[in-house]
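Hi all, a correction to my earlier message: I attached the wrong file for AMP-dependent synthetase/ligase domain-containing protein. Here's the right sequence:
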Amino acid sequence: MLSHTNIVCNASQIADCMKLTQKDRMCIPVPFFHCFGSVLGVLACLTKGGTIIPIESFHPERVLQTVEKEVHRPSWRPDNVHAELDHPNFHQYDLSTLRTGIMAGSLCPSHVMKAVIEQMGMKELTIAYGQTESSPVITQTRTDDSFERRVQTVGRALPHIEVKITVPGTPEEVPRGEQGELCTRGYHVMKGYYKKMKKPQMK
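and the right structure:
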């Protein structure tokens, strides 16, 4: 279960990483029932007083038309970007108002980031990582991060969030560069699973 504090604070931090303001108009072509649409999209925009432009269901050309007509900063997922960039009418649309956006769910391949910057004009695109149980974002790149950081990482921890990599099943941290289990704590961590409020015991 997530609290209002969990998701509103997380949404505000996400918006800060994207430098959203009340002047922004964000296209949200993803479902609102999912944390991407509801927190990274709707609530991130609303915490800064921006305008949300929802799209009932995703269709690449509908998104391009909406951006050209009434949007300044989009919220997109990597798979959606491919669909828009590959659309046969892509070059017919004026996307010059685009500045920033957010991708989540995986690293952004360098060729996709390059196309988003050069063909869509989104020079301040951010990449986020998290899970529903963490409200959902744990780490995010910033708008002024280098190209390399945005394609090789999922950013750094949001403010007021702690992250460490441990040996699976233990609290012991692994050496830098080693694989392990990601552990996080802060305002963003869920309160528990519904009707299962006991915390799991660390072995």
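Sorry for the mix-up. The chain has six helices and nine strands.
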